[in-house]
Amino acid sequence: MSEAIGAARQNEPVRSAGPLGGLGRFVAETAYLGLRAWRRFYRVPANPLSIVLYPLIQLFVFSQLFKDIVQLPGFGASSGSYLAYLAPGQITFTVFFAVSWSGGNLLYDYRSGMLDKLRATPVGRYAILAGELVPLFLECMIMAAAILVLSLLLGARIETGLPGAVGVLLLAGAFGVAWAGTSFVPALLTKNEQATGTLSILFFPIAFMSTAFVPVALMPDWLQVINAWNPITYVIEAMRALMVSGFEWDAIGRAVVAIAAVGLVLHSITLLAFRRLTD
After folding, report:
1. Which of 114, 140, 192, 269 could be bridged to 176 by S-S, CB 3.0 to 4.6 A?
2. How far apart are CA 140 and CA 146, in angstroms?
3. CA dihedral sign, ordered 117, 120, 125, 130
4. What is the pLDDT of residues 50-63, one digit of tens each?
5. CA-to-CA dists, residue 9 to 122, 195, 221, angstroms
């Protein structure tokens, strides 16, 4: 099969660059494959429900059970509401669930022969990966919006209004795309769905060691050291600022840098693993 695909690609006609050249072709291919991935995900209604259900329950229960925790010295939640403090962390948990099995979709295409069929066509190799990431960005935004809406219904406020809410959703989507590498890399390297799911879940302690539930001041010293290098904390703190204080551009900037660094590292490995799989 691989030899036949290689011969087919060698004999394929040269594609016209078109008005936008290779970039336009890449965007068109990504959009087409992204729409396919989007339909595949929402064709099963249990997919979005299973992802958003646990964070929704956790937000509702914890915000009521520990609502007086903000009275502890050193908590420092400027809004005085644990619900507003908790919501950004639960948005991050939603993103974790959304991307934890994303690498399995590539394995499904690999095992079903769809990946070989795509390789035999003029579709660019990296458009296949991008076609998985674009709908993932939208899925993370939509499910983060569900957490945000529940927070508002329970009484939380977004101090920065609609622009701040959009900022929270954009951060959630961008973080989801960057963090998807934690699922793509084991999927492409192991070619095993069970190993992919297990290795992705192993990253969950990183979320619990962030400021999702309590501020740094209430953490033990050793956890504060780890937390200083935890990229998830920077994303949560930027979302939290948008909800409870305002546009703190230094916090937002740190979150953007953290997302970019995580994405650069993880997706560089993803590209290498994908090239190895498709060569």
Report:
1. 140
2. 10
3. negative
4. 777 777 887 888 88
5. 8, 32, 57
- Three-class HEC string of 196-226: HHHHHHCCHHHHHCCCCCCCHHHCCHHHHHH
C-alpha 74/C-alpha 60 separation (Å) is 24
Residue pair 207/93 in contact (Cβ under 8 Å)? The answer is yes
Residue 124: CB partners within 8 Å, gap ≥ 6? 25, 26, 29
* Other Cβ atoms closer than 10 A to 276: 10
pTM (2 d.p.)? 0.83
Which secondary structure element, helix H or strand E, spans residue 251, and what is its range?
Answer: helix 249-278
Within the chain, strands assigned E span: none
In whole angstroms, give the CA distance from residue 176 to residue 91: 10
**103-133 b/e with 16+ CB inside 10 Å = b?**
bbbbbebbeeeebeebbbeebbeebbbbbbb
Smallest Cα–Cα separation from 94: which of 153, 38, 150, 51? 51
Buried b (16+ CB within 10 A) or exposed e, 1-30: eeeebeeeeeeeeeeeeeeeeeeebbeebb
Indicate the pLDDT class of residue 104, thresholds 50, 70 and 90: confident
